[in-house]
Write a structure and sequence with these properties.
Length: 280
């Protein structure tokens, strides 16, 4: 997979070189290019924004700068070197390393799969979900356009449809200063699902959201710590009981923190009985 990010704050994207993503770069499973938008500014002051038509506060990012930037990045016609991994990596296999997963697209009508995917992070976008992360993990080339200020001239997004499949997405109901941190969030959620990057297939089949429920609590040794015991069922050796207990912990957490998610989950008779017992 190749990721390109266009931003006026390239150093903000440095975390992409570290940890899991750094390892993916090191292993050749990921290439990342971070591009300074000002490269495409044409005036003496390298300005990238201007006052909004119709008046109002803030500034809007200029189409004459973003247009050529997106043209060049779509075709790889840039001079920026790719990011290097921060890790002098110990090529030590992890205890849970197994073959990766098969990425799952959304299925059905693929619009111009040849075009790269352009992600425009914006609080006015469609909510980003685990299903998007799963689908995008099968992409060859994803470009992120990070806007600052009051956003990017909307004609840039419209025009980009010629060369990209464009998605305007939000990572939550709050406002960030710009799209950079949202890009880090989305990139991490997507890249960890690229086959061979995370290592352990089961660990994301059991992720919160993958089955529509939140994950329950986890425990490790020691059995007793600061007077607190690990739940007895987990040390019982009874796998059926452990599975049932974990399912109920997931149901409990979801009921406590995200009750609306329960509307879209397939519930067994036993699940319903457990949830009914909570409501009493
Ligand atoms: Cl994706 N971008 C910005 N700038 N703010 C946000 C956001 C994205 N998602 C929530 N707030």
């Amino acid at each position: 997979m190749r990721l390109d990010v266009i931003t006026i704050f390239p150093e903000y994207l440095d975390p992409l070189r570290h940890a899991l993503l750094g390892k993916a770069i090191e292993q050749g499973k990921l290439a990342v290019g971070v591009h300074d938008l000002r490269q495409w500014a044409t005036d003496r002051h390298k300005s990238v924004d201007d006052t909004p038509f119709g008046g109002g506060p803030g500034m809007v990012m200029k189409p004459e700068v973003w247009g050529p930037a997106l043209d060049d990045v779509a075709t790889g016609s840039t001079s920026t070197p790719d990011l290097e991994s921060s890790l002098p990596h110990l090529n030590k296999p992890r205890r849970d390393d197994v073959a990766g997963v098969t990425p799952q697209g959304y299925g059905g009508g693929e619009e111009g799969i040849d075009k790269p995917l352009l992600i425009v992070p914006t609080p006015a976008g469609k909510p980003f979900t685990q299903a998007d992360a799963q689908a995008w993990s099968a992409e060859q080339h994803i470009v992120f356009a990070c806007g600052r200020y009051e956003g990017i001239d909307q004609r840039v997004v419209e025009d980009a449809e010629k060369r990209y499949r464009v998605r305007e997405v939000s990572i939550g109901d709050y406002v960030l200063i710009g799209g950079e941190v949202a890009t880090l969030v989305i990139a991490e959620a997507v890249v960890r699902l690229v086959p061979g990057v995370l290592g352990n297939q089961r660990s994301h089949e059991e992720d919160s959201f993958s089955d529509g429920l939140l994950e329950g609590p986890s425990y490790t040794k020691p059995r007793q710590w600061r007077g607190l015991e690990v739940p007895e069922v987990l040390t019982s050796g009874n796998h059926a009981k452990v599975d049932r207990w974990r399912r109920e912990q997931s149901l409990l957490r979801t009921w406590q923190h995200r009750p609306e998610l329960l509307d879209d989950v397939e519930l067994s008779k036993a699940d319903r009985a457990f949830l009914d017992s909570l409501r009493d």
